[in-house]
Design a protein that fits this description.
Elements (H helix, E strand, L loop, with lengths): L1 H24 L6 H12 L16 H27 L2 H23 L8 H16 L9 H25 L4 H18 L4 H8 L11 H23 L5 H6 L2 H14 L4 H4 L5 H23 L1
């Protein structure tokens, strides 16, 4: 059950990252393509493991599997950043995060031929976690039309990353598999250079200073890298059938985002504005109770 607590730590870090993402995307680093490019390039930092004996000579199918897993994460990031730019953080993040575990559940069942599925108790806990995640949203489940495509696309890519990564970890130790996936992440990042706006931001920094990443960006990505590494470690530890549960636990992240959005809105109301009524507050309390109950199912089972 160690994977459960490792995942909780990961989503606490993801909450901090999501708030920084929202702040940056509302300001000078306003192109999700540029943002996804830098995230992918920074993911190549895992290649620093190469001189330390973590490289294996994988069979071509395994290398492709790991590469697709890494690429799926970066393209998922792009769609997620695009949704975050078009919607408030307290809506975009829960919407994407609640759909992701559902996709992971069905993808896992499909690739395992139905062998890796949750039992009755685990399925109940899984459902409670997802329900709590949905209820964290301040005003129901409405989604802006301009953000709908991105909200639906991001979970598909994030789910593909989790399911494919778990297949890699079933065959390789954690750091070896993580290193292989870094190749796919870096390759996916390079594809964003096909965009003129991304090329201009990357190669013409003097003329595009307002769109360059700063210390806050790298702080956010440092936290994001730590969060992703921690979540990946949780995926490697968990049974294959429990992979969807890790994503469903993101309700902890949503609660933290909501709480800190309220605090940060005092300083940056345009970026972090969240409208709250007594009914909304009651909804948040119910959400927290559902998430706590879902976690209890797995802790006590």
């Amino acid at each position: 059950m160690v994977w459960l607590f490792v995942a909780l730590a990961a989503f606490s870090l993801f909450a901090a990252t999501a708030l920084i993402d929202k702040f940056l995307l509302a300001g000078k680093l306003d192109d999700p393509g540029i943002y996804a490019f830098y995230v992918g390039i920074l993911s190549a930092g895992a290649l620093l493991l190469l001189p330390f004996g973590f490289w294996v000579n994988p069979a071509p199918p395994l290398f492709l599997l790991a590469s697709f897993a890494g690429a799926a994460q970066i393209y998922g990031d792009y769609f997620y950043f695009s949704a975050l730019k078009r919607m408030e953080a307290s809506r975009a993040v829960p919407a994407v995060g609640s759909l992701t575990p559902i996709c992971v559940f069905f993808f896992t069942a499909a690739v395992s031929g139905g062998a890796a599925v949750l039992g009755a108790k685990e399925l109940a806990g899984f459902s409670l976690l997802i329900a709590g995640g949905w209820l964290v949203m301040a005003r129901g489940v409405s989604i802006k039309k301009e953000g709908l495509f991105f909200v639906l696309a991001a979970p598909l890519f994030f789910a593909a990353n989790v399911v494919l990564a778990k297949l890699v970890y079933l065959q390789l130790p954690f750091l070896n598999g993580f290193l292989l996936m870094a190749f796919g992440s870096a390759a996916a990042a390079i594809t964003f250079l096909l965009s003129k706006s991304v090329r201009q931001a990357v190669f013409h920094s003097r003329r595009n200073k307002q769109r360059q990443p700063d210390l806050l960006f790298f702080l956010g990505q440092g936290l994001g890298a730590a969060a992703f590494l921690t979540q990946s470690f949780a995926v490697s530890l968990a049974p294959q059938a429990s992979a969807p549960v890790i994503n469903a636990m993101a309700g902890v992240q949503y609660v933290l985002i909501f709480i800190f959005s309220l605090i940060l809105a005092r300083r940056w109301p345009v970026v972090f504005a969240v409208k709250i009524t007594p009914a909304d507050l009651a909804q948040k309390i119910i959400a927290i109770l559902l998430i706590a109950a879902g976690l209890a199912v797995f802790i006590l089972n």
